């Protein structure tokens, strides 16, 4: 046999022996691993097929191993407090599904999910776990089906039903939940839910609008009274004030400013208007029919923020959210513009103003919607006294741009010209309308 033939035979033999050794190792270690897993899960009776119901006798050893990073982060006592929570999540869309998924992964052992809707193809850009196979399945069952594969020990109760105030006690109170999460996008239902939780003293955290948002650095966690730049939050605040609720409800919101260059509510096709009775197009009475553009990652950010807030709060982990982190300096600056005007108009340069910084937020965001009623601009804004014959008050301060303030100060406050010489009837009517609204809402503040 030639040298080259011997070398080829030796190479072939080596390959065969190596392959046999690898297969033997795979068989041995695979069998050992399967044996170990089988022993570890002997008590829990977990099979290789999908888990369809909660496994109540799941191995505590496996649970702690799965939650090892949580225990390391929160400590034994903190992690156990998280596991003891019973959270009710109302709304299982983009925000709600991400919140539920994160709570389950964080160790919360009991969750009730309430939603009437089904997974659609358009849900897949933001839903936490849904796949194409889930299209047509109820959102609550979709979550349960997937999350039981992650945490078989978690008790996931599903309610495929629209939450309404008439059934609030039946849907929320059984089992004494420790937290309620509001992920509803219908204003009437949202306000009813928050009012019910407030009156029942149920800890609740509410998600404001994630649609049309894109700047994650503007996401805040704080009392609903500090929320701004969000039409949904503004409407919810006003309706809650009518019910005597000014604060005391935690919320996640974005302070991202609206911009005509950014996404907005999509118009309804003209052919739908031509058919009449547009309100009949909604799936349910009083629900919106127009589409809100959603960047899929933003509902996830909101949902994860809520879950993180709950986990750290109940665990006693030291976190100090900066409420309204993007706006405080703006309000302080606006107050200074009013004080500066007072100084310029005062004989003795008095800068004292009868308005607090909390009033500045209210004037800017609530009364004047964050923009000048004169030009509609929301940049380089200031505050100005309106009527020189009346004392400074919440009904005698107007948001203006710096240029508008200069003109108003010179012509109205100093020279005393008639308002009609400076402003159009449309502007004067709008400002009077804003003052009238303030007079109405002031009784609820």
TrEMBL record:
One GO BP: cyclic threonylcarbamoyladenosine biosynthetic process
Membrane topology designation: Multi-pass membrane protein
Entry GO CC: mitochondrial outer membrane
Gene Ontology MF term list: ATP binding; tRNA threonylcarbamoyladenosine dehydratase; ubiquitin-like modifier activating enzyme activity
Subcellular location: Cytoplasm; Mitochondrion outer membrane
SUPFAM superfamilies reported for this sequence: Activating enzymes of the ubiquitin-like proteins
InterPro entries listed in its UniProt record: ThiF/MoeB/HesA (IPR045886), ThiF_NAD_FAD-bd (IPR000594), Ubiquitin-activating_enz (IPR035985)
One Pfam family here: ThiF
Domain of life according to the entry: Eukaryota
Primary residence: cytoplasm
Keyword annotations from UniProtKB, A to Z: ATP-binding, Cytoplasm, Ligase, Membrane, Mitochondrion, Mitochondrion outer membrane, Nucleotide-binding, Signal, Transmembrane, Transmembrane helix
Record carries keyword Signal: yes
Signal sequence segment: 1-24
THIF-type NAD/FAD binding fold domain: residues covered: 68-345
Function: Catalyzes the ATP-dependent dehydration of threonylcarbamoyladenosine at position 37 (t(6)A37) to form cyclic t(6)A37 (ct(6)A37) in tRNAs that read codons beginning with adenine.
Protein name: THIF-type NAD/FAD binding fold domain-containing protein
Organism: [Candida] arabinofermentans NRRL YB-2248
């Amino acid at each position: 046999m030639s040298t080259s033939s011997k070398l080829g035979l030796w190479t072939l033999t080596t390959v065969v022996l190596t392959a046999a050794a690898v297969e033997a190792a795979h068989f041995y270690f695979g069998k050992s691993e399967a044996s170990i897993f089988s022993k570890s899960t002997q008590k829990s009776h977990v099979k290789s097929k999908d888990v369809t119901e909660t496994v109540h006798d799941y191995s505590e050893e496996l649970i702690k191993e799965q939650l090892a990073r949580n225990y390391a982060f929160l400590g034994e006592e903190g992690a156990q407090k998280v596991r003891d929570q019973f959270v009710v999540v109302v709304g299982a869309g983009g925000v709600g599904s991400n919140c539920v998924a994160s709570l389950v992964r964080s160790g919360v052992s009991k969750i009730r999910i309430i939603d009437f809707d089904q997974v659609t193809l358009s849900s897949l850009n933001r839903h936490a776990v849904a796949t194409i196979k889930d299209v047509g399945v109820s959102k609550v069952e979709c979550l349960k089906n997937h999350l039981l594969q992650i945490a078989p020990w978690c008790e996931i109760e599903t309610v495929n039903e629209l939450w309404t105030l008439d059934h609030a006690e039946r849907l929320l109170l059984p089992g004494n939940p420790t937290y309620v999460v509001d992920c509803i996008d219908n204003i009437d239902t949202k306000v009813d839910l928050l009012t019910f939780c407030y009156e029942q003293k149920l800890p609740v955290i509410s998600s404001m609008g994630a649609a049309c948002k894109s700047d994650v650095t503007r996401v805040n966690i704080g009392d609903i009274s500090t929320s701004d730049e969000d039409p949904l939050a503004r409407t919810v605040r006003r309706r809650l004030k009518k019910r005597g609720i000014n604060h005391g409800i935690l919320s996640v919101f974005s302070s991202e400013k609206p911009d005509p260059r950014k996404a907005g509510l999509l118009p309804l096709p003209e052919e739908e208007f031509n058919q009449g009775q547009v309100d009949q197009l909604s799936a349910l009475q009083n629900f919106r029919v127009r589409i809100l553009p959603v960047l899929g990652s933003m509902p996830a950010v909101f949902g994860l923020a809520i879950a993180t807030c709950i986990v750290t709060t109940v665990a006693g982990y030291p976190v100090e959210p900066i409420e309204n982190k993007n706006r405080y300096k703006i309000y302080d600056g606006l107050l200074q513009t009013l004080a500066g005007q007072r100084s310029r108009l005062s004989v003795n340069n008095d800068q004292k103003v009868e308005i607090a910084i909390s009033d500045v937020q209210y004037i800017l965001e609530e009364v004047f919607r964050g923009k000048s009623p004169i030009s509609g601009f929301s940049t380089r804004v200031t505050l100005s006294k309106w009527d020189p014959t009346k004392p400074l008050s919440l009904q005698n301060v107007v948001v203006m741009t710096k240029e508008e303030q200069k003109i108003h100060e010179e012509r109205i406050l100093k020279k005393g010209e008639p308002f009609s010489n400076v402003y159009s009837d449309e502007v004067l009517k709008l400002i009077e309308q804003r003052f009238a609204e303030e007079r109405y809402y002031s009784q609820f503040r």
